[in-house]
Design goal:
The chain is α+β, with helices and mostly antiparallel strands. The chain folds into 3 domains: 57 residues; 110 residues, Band 7 domain (Tetrahydropterin Synthase, Chain A, 2-Layer Sandwich), CATH 3.30.479.30; 38 residues, no CATH class. It has a 3-stranded antiparallel beta sheet. Strand 6 and strand 7 form a beta hairpin. The longest helix is centred in the C-terminal third of the chain and has 51 residues.
């Protein structure tokens, strides 16, 4: 009976040590995450195997696991850059990015967990400076916002192509100009709009005048042709026809033959 406690103590100590080892060896990878294994007594970061996936894992207590979020993430950036004529422009942009899953070991080995600050932010800032520097404030304010968004995305993607990071999209949310420049651009745009409206009214008036002239010319030509075709003989014949129709009318009248101009009958009423 006295020997039982002496035997039980090592067992209890062993169980405690085992539990500690299990706790230290247990790693849980949450949803949307992946793990990079570092072997202390091996070759360090494991790069030739897929990352540790979601779920519960047991690793040797002398090894380490570095957990990365592998879902798409968003970076917000406010950048002050210079336009082509040297004016300071503020760009509000955001980038959608994620680490390349199968290259997570290489990413950890070359850049580490702060890869956002190491490569993504410098890349998007450099691309924004390069792209905006090719445009004037007027272009940035009016018609080129979609163009600079696409160009910043393309240049940033090129920079990050060998950094084990996948860039999905760059969105330019706002372009802020100095107030004086913004007011000058808006004033210029209003003047251009008014000029276009004035030109439109001139063109409309010119077309209307041309229409009236063509109609008047058409009537004049028609009258000219009609006048040329109405000889005295034709007029007499038409007058005779009209006289015959009038003589057949039931109204009371007196017809005097040969009393009108050109020998046409003269028709008088009974008054």
């Amino acid at each position: 009976m006295e020997r039982l406690p002496k035997i039980g103590i090592p067992i209890v100590i062993g169980i405690i040590i085992l539990l500690v080892l299990i706790v230290k060896s247990a790693v849980t990878i949450d949803s949307g995450e992946a793990g990079v294994l570092f072997k202390t007594f091996g070759n360090g970061v494991v790069t030739d195997e897929p990352p540790m996936s979601e779920g519960f894992h047991i690793v040797a207590p002398w090894n380490k696991v570095y957990v990365y979020e592998v879902r798409q993430q968003e970076l917000f950036e406010k950048m002050k850059v210079l336009s082509s004529n040297g004016l300071e422009i503020q760009i509000d942009a955001s980038a959608w990015y994620e680490p390349v899953y199968n290259e997570l070991g290489n990413l950890h080995q070359s850049l580490g967990q702060d890869y956002l600050q190491r490569v993504i932010q410098p890349a998007i800032r450099s691309a924004a400076r390069s792209v905006v520097g090719r445009y004037t404030p007027e272009q940035l304010y009016s018609s080129k916002r979609d163009a600079i968004q696409d160009e910043i995305f393309a240049e940033t993607k090129t920079i990050l192509s060998k950094q084990y990071v996948q860039l999905n999209e760059v969105l330019v949310r706002d372009v802020t100009l100095p107030n004086t420049i913004k007011e000058a651009i808006e004033r210029k745009l209003r003047q251009e709009q008014e000029s276009l409206e004035y030109e439109f009214r001139l063109v409309t008036a010119s077309k209307e005048a041309e229409k009236v002239r063509i109609e008047a010319q058409g009537k004049a030509d028609a009258n000219k042709i009609l006048s040329a075709s109405l000889t005295d003989k034709i007029l007499q014949d038409k007058g005779i026809d009209a006289t015959i129709k009038l003589s057949e009318s039931p109204n009371s009248k007196v017809v005097v033959i040969g009393s009108g101009d050109s020998g046409l009958p003269l028709i008088l009423g009974d008054n």
